[in-house]
Structure formats: C-alpha cells, structure tokens
C-alpha cells in the first residue's frame, strides 16, 4: 500500500505552556514552537483541523486579503460604531476570549463552522495578531450598557467560558441561544480555604445561572467538573448526577462540548453535568438530545 508523507505542525495547547508564559498570546506564538513529523495520510480529525489552521492561517489571510498584523495606525484599528438597523444576526460572541478555553473555542468556530465570530478580549492587538480579521475583537467594560449594545450587534448566540458575563447583561433580546460553562458544582463542593478563595466566583456563577434561568432566552448550562490543563480527545465522558462534584474535565474537551452545544438549542433551557469518564460519545447531537429529554426539554 502506498503512503503519502506530509508535514504536520503540532498544536501547542494551553496546558503545554509553562506557567511563566503569557497564555493569552499562545496562539500567536505557537508558530515559534513547532515540531515536524511525518505520518501516513489519514482522515483529518477535529483537533487536526485546528492544527492545519494554525499552519495555514497566515497564508489564508494573504489569499483572502486579510492583514497578518494589526495596523499601527490607531485610527485604522478603531472599530466602526455605526451599524445598520437591519443587520442580520449571524455572529457567535465568545466572552473571555483571552482565556485558554476561550481561545480554543474561537479557533474551533473558525475551523469547524466558519461564519462571523466576535470576541470580548483584554488586548485587541494580541487577538488580531493571533486571529487576523477572522474575529471581530472587542475591548470594553462588559457591564457598560453602551458597550453591551455594541458587542451584541448581529449576535445570534453567546458562548461564555467563564463566570461574570450573563449577570451583567441588561437584555438578551434577539439572542437565540446562550451556552454557559459553569463551575458552580465545583465551587459549592469546596471547603476550607478553597471555599474562601472561590467565594466571589461562586457568587458570580450563581448570579449568572439565575440570570439565564429568568431570561426567557434558550440556554444551555454546562456544569463541568474541575477544569484541567490536560489533552482533550483522549478520554470519554460521564453525565451522571454528581459527576461534576467528583470529577474533572479537560479544558480542551470543555471547549469542544461548548461548540457541539451551539446547534442543540432547547425550547427554553436546560442544565447538565459533565466530567471525563468512560462513556464514548459518537453522536453529540443525539447525546445532547437525550440529556434534554431526561431534563424534560426538547430541541427546537
């Protein structure tokens, strides 16, 4: 049997970056830490697509006329404040886009789904250097009503990989789905000094979940086990009651579940627990539909 050899660039996930490095820029710096290996040509998997994007991203930006780096002229960097009143809602907004999970979610949206992606970040220049013009990066106070209105322009769905955003939103009118990655089960199970350290995060998570429950907007709350910097795609899952308290979940797997949940829109909203475990999921749409049915919900 003949094999075709090809060069493959290894993705450096957040878990592989030394703690002293600035994780928010890991996507941009990944090109400086590549390893090359030869292998037999095979079907491209989900994470392999991300690897291919990292390798081909700069070329794609040139092919499609997008700049590799942010222009130094500040006036060019500023985003337009005016939007047409009839703008179509076709974008996915990722909050906390500087975080490990946020960055993996953004890359996954670019590679797997395409379409418009907006992201709330702390450093617009770093984000644009990492993602080019594939992502509309926004910097501002998420609790400011004017900034909220601008951030939610044209947005159909929101993915929140961290606590603190849903409870600051005055209105979610026009949004058809919010996916919230919650650590509330972990916070509630902590005790001693860990409970003190998690007290503020716990309050925010409780407020976020309460806001989504009362919003009237379809929502999916993913109560994950303690998030870990471990490779994704290596383990199965558990959805049993209490698994989030006892178990852990790879950040990469958590990001993947958020992406899979985008199209599984409930009629109202539902919450489920997940951690890494023994169950292999081959069909996420069917899996999420089963979890919704168990929770008394239905897919739209």
From TrEMBL:
**GO (cellular component) term, any one:** chloroplast
Which residue ranges does the record assign to the NAD(P)-binding domain?
101-263
Top-level lineage group:
Eukaryota
Name the record gives this protein: NAD(P)-binding domain-containing protein
Q: Which PANTHER family match?
A: OS03G0410700 PROTEIN
Q: Which InterPro entries match?
A: NAD(P)-bd_dom, NAD(P)-bd_dom_sf
A Pfam short name:
NAD_binding_10
Q: Which species?
A: Tripterygium wilfordii
